[in-house]
# Entry
Amino acid sequence: MNIKLVESLAQVVQSLSPEERSLLEEKLKTYPENPSESEKERPFYETATPEEWIKAFREWAASHPGDRPSLSDEAISRESIYGERG
# Structure
């Protein structure tokens, strides 16, 4: 928790006029107290097990058509990749 931020906010709120406090209260009512489930949900990369990663990768790979031409042996040869540095 950011204590300095909370203290600063408390000072600002204390300095508000009654009308400004009223407006602030109205604004705060528009925000839910508890975040929705989608806000609480952590991303896949934070929660996935190794098995889930493997399954997701295989599904992704299977979603790409296999009828694309493969590279020739010449195209992936060391000489073709590194040239004279090979």
About this structure: The mean pLDDT is 85.
